[in-house]
Every structure is written in structure tokens, then in C-alpha cells.
Amino acid sequence: MMIESSPNNLDLRVGTDAQSERIGALVFDALVKKDDHYNLQPWLATSWEQPDPVTWIFHLRDGVTFHDGRALSAEDVVWTIESLIDPAHGHLITSKSGNFAAVASAEAKDRLTVVVHLKHPDAELLFNMSDGLFGVVPNGSGSDFGLHPIGTGPFRFISSVQDKEVLVERNPGYWAGSPKIERVRFAVVPDAITTALELQKGSRDMESNAITLDMVHALRNERSLATETGPSSVVVYMNFNVQDPILRDRRVRQAIACAIDRQAIVDAIWRGKARLANSLLPPEHWARAADSEMASYPHDIGRAQKLLGDAGFPARKDGVRLHLTLKTSTDETTRLLAAILQQQLRPAGIDLQIRSAEFGTFYSDVTKGAFQIYALRWIGSNEDPDIFRYAYGSASVPPKGGNRGRYANPKLDDLLKSAAASSDQSERRRDYVEAQQILAEDLPGIPLWYPDNEVIHNLRVNGIRPVGAGGFDYLRFASLRTSP
């Protein structure tokens, strides 16, 4: 299987990049696992309860063993949690400690029972213990554990060579059923054209969302290959600097939304392989507001022009009402998106300039707030409704979060605080629906679409079902045949 880059750290307590989380989720097990609606289901924890708002009790699955034969116990879970909240445990330095900031301590009540004590209620704790984000490590695992990770997952780590490959093999004693594929080599191939050619030649078996959709379309004619398409939780979005003198008026932001023909862009860039988005949450999510519950902005140039006029931007003789700049990375798909946006905003009277830079420079400007508009995507983090606090909470301005546009709304903050403190899902959903209604009206950012998951594989590989944020969980169920 080809991947675009090496994982930064296969210790899921540390690794936050996509490859670390996707491969790490095959090596480690989490306490809970997300289902198709992003509800959290039992995994290593068979059940849990909250006797009070600041206490969680987890009951662990019996008979689970690590790859080196050690039996999983509550002490391992306690060590994993404690090392995330206390650097003295394993001398771990990790950005994931913020996900456990509400945790005061964890204790092993008995061999299979873990008690977590909180400083204050935190309904998001359970999500932060789910697959891809959390992996239970053996008691005593230190800062160099990512070099030779030992988990309880369906595959066990064999070796890794930076910028070349990661090799894993099936765990024959896996408690949830041993995978059928004996070994998987994750070969690092940074170039999309090379990836496509390797598939075409048959020298590699698979890739997942690593090539452009034009290449995916071209490879559909190859008799030795098959393409599997599945819904994705990844969301592409535009964000505004609401402190900007022009963009601080929400009518300008709404006008931009009306001027964009999102379906035309999906058809042109994504070849129709994407679903339109009206929220950062995936459509299947239990907390997502229905489209009918939120303000909407169908393509309407007349409405865009009126909103701009009402905001104090009349059309000049050349038809231009205002000038804005969109910052992007040098990624080819993003640059193409920017060029189309530039064309689509012009009839509304918006002269959109494009500034492209390599990703490091671009992202530095974004976090510093040195932009008017930018386009990016949320991968995985938007499967948790806490994404609204992280992306738009007034206390989440970088470096404390992802509110790069400096948006602030006290009512939104109160709703998100209430939702995070409640353990009643129906109450939380009401708060999150109202939060999405506020964001759809104020429009500090525009959710654009959810690109489909596209996995191309050799016909000798069976059982591929891509879902969610592009994880590799389907390798647990995949199988090989000797000839196509």
C-alpha cells in the first residue's frame, strides 16, 4: 500500500499526522470505537458509567494481550492516560495533552476496572479515547516507544525506515479476529504521478486518497484495477478573518457564499465525487443539524450583489465593489479551486486576488491571522462536535486552538460550554444544533463539501470499504487472492 509520507510517530500518544493515526490505529486498540454515526461503541472498554459528572468508570475486556504476550490490564490504561497528562510519566512531550486537560488522575480499581477523575465535567473525553486518536500502551512505555510500538491491535509492528516504508504483520491472536492479510508494507511514495504509474504497472497493490481525481478517473479503464468509493467525513472549507475591515460585516461573508456555485466546483474539480456541506460535522453525525434547520446560501448572484450593496459596497463603473485576497498552499487541487472561486466571485463585484505559498509559509500566515480568506480541510477532528469550540470558540485563538479568523460570539461559547458539560446526548444535540444555526447565520467560515474516499487497488485485493476520515481499518477485513 502506498502512502504519501512517513508517519511522524506511531505512538498514538504523540503522533498527530494522518499517517501516524491511520497506521497507529492498526497497531493499537482504543477504549471505544466510532460507529457509522460517530456514536461511541465498546471496544477495549466493554462498558462504562458516570456515577457523577466528574467520574468515569471503565470496565475492560478480559483476555486481551499485547503483541509481546503480556495481558492487558487496568494498569496499562492508567499509564496511558497518566502519561498524557503528566510529563513525568515516560517523559512524554505531546500536543495531545490538551485533549486530557480536564483529567485530574486515573486509577486502577482492580485488574479490569479503571476510574478516571476529572477536574470539571468533560463530555468530549470519551471521543478523545476513540480509534485513531488513542491507543493503549503497556505500563511503563517511555518517550522512545514510537520507535518499536507494541499494541493490542490487529497488526503488529515489524519495522520502519524513514521516507521509505513501514512494515506490519497480522496479529494471529487478535481478540476481535485475526486479519486475513499476512503482511502489509506501507511504501512511502510522495509523488501522485509515481503512485498512479506504480498502480498501472502492478508493482504496488493499493493507494488511498493519494492521487488526484483526474488520475482516479484515468485509472478506471485499467482492467487490473478497481476503485472503491465511500463517504468521507473530511470537510473542505473556507475561513474568513472576521477582524478584517471588509469581512467583519457578515453580509459580505454571506454575499461570498451566495456567489459561489459549489455544485459546479464539485462537478469540475471532484468529478461529482463529493457531497455539499452546510456544517463542519459529517452528514451522518448524531449532532449535525439538518440542512432545513440552518440558513442556506444557494448560488444567487443577485442576492450576493444586494447583500454587498446593503453592506456599503456599491458597484463602480467597472462593476467591482471590493477587493479581497485568498491565500492557499501550492497544492494543485487547492490552486485550481482558488482560480474557479476567482471567476465565480467576479460577477458579484468581488475582485479576488490569489496568493499561493508552500504549505509551511501558508500555514504560518493562517495561524498568525495574516489573511483575509483561506481554504483548507478538517480531517478527523470534525468527527467530534467539539470542533465548533476548537474552530470558533473565543478562547481558541492560536496557539490555544484553531480559531484562526478570530471569531467571537458569547452565545456560541455558552452553548458549547453547556454541551461539553452535559452527559445527556439529546441535550447536547440541542445545544449543538443551535450552535450550528448561529454559525450558519454569522458565517465565520463556509463549509464547502465532503470529498469522497477513493481507494484504488489491484484486483487481487478484496474486501475494501473506505469510510470516515480515510482510515485504514478496512485492512482488518481485506483478503488476497492469488490471481485476479
Quick overview of this protein structure:
Helix content is 26%, strand content 23%. It contains 12 helices and 21 strands. Helix 5 packs antiparallel against helix 7 (301-310) and helix 11 (410-421) packs antiparallel against helix 12 (425-442).
Annotation, overall tally of beta strands: 21
Biggest sheet character: 6 strands, mixed
Rg computed from alpha carbons, rounded to a whole number of angstroms: 23 Å
The percent range for helix content is: 25-40%
The unreliable regions are: none
Describe it for me?
This protein has 484 residues and is α+β, with helices and mostly antiparallel strands. It contains twelve helices and 21 strands. The strands form six sheets. The protein has a six-stranded mixed β-sheet, with helices on both faces. Strand 6 and strand 7 (113-118) form a beta hairpin. Helix 5 runs antiparallel to helix 7 and helix 11 packs antiparallel against helix 12 (425-442). The protein is globular, with a radius of gyration of 23 Å. The chain starts with a strand and ends with a strand. 46% of the residues are buried.
